[in-house]
Amino acid sequence: MTIEPEPRPAQPELRAEPEQESAAPDLPREARTEPQQRQALPEPTQDIPSEPSAEPIAPEEPRAPELEPRTEQGLTETEPESAEAYLDREGAPAAPQPPQASVPEAEPETPRTEFRPGATTLEEEPVRRRPWLRMVKLIGLLGLLTLLGSAVLFRFINPPFTTVMATEKLSGATLRREWVPLERISRSLPLAVVASEDGRFCQHWGVDWGAVRDAVKENRSGGFRGASTIPMQTAKNLYLWTERSYLRKLIEVPIAYLLSALWPKERVIEVYLNIAQWGPGIFGAEAASRYYFGKSASALTRREALLLAAALPAPRIRNPARPSARMLQIARSVERRMPVIVSRATCLRSARSG
User: Fold this and answer.
1) Which residues of 171-191 are buried (b: 16+ CB within 10 A; e: fewer)?
2) In angstroms, rounded to a whole number, what is the distance separating the alpha carbons of residues 161 and 177?
């Protein structure tokens, strides 16, 4: 036996009974009559078992809670609530925060490094990466102070030795030297040396640039001519070495200017005549006069002074006691210039006449 479902009452009939709908609007769901419940249920598609109790009610879906009114200065106003505020108020788990970057621990300070063009590896700071540079600078500063101090000291005190003397001593040569003042040297010798080495000695202050230009022109044409002045020769014999080089010339120039600024002309020629080399281990005019001519420098003749002056450019191979034809030719050329030098050498008036 099948139970036929009751026909659903037409919609107009429901609207025609307003009194039944409004008679009990506040009755609970369970108190509704069976016909009312059947009207709310869907139509059965299969056999409905007979049960004395009412059919189970499906659970309602959760609805968002109603917004609470916000009271502000006596006014009640309802505003929409954001999802973030709702989740915070209901105790929902907060959104995951992005991971924060970990702060690295402070490492001990290490020396800075820099990369120089042309270098193959990173190098440390100059203080640590180039200790030899600091040493070179320190040595250069000490050398400059030593040079300046010795130049001032030798203005009043005779130099006890020179670098050329030290080189000769290390090579095993026996040194012959005796210091004599300019007044005890024949005046022919300083005049002959000025005529041979530096014709404008009393006019320049260390370097004769006119002679330098003439020497450059002569050397380009195939000849050979030096342009070293007596202050430059003094600087070479006192502080430097005898081998020819551009480096030596580069150092000679400032030292020559320094000596000319600190020493008077008579002191320059006096020091030069006492430290100049006239042979292996022979230094100074007094030692050369006694070695080659057997007499003091004060007793030199004009010819002997000219031969000593001609030997100065090559003292190791030229012997004033046995002059070669080349030496005699140089001596005659110097003798022809001596009258002009006498008129120019006003700075040598105090030298002893000979």
Assistant:
1) eeeeebbebbebeebbbbbbb
2) 10
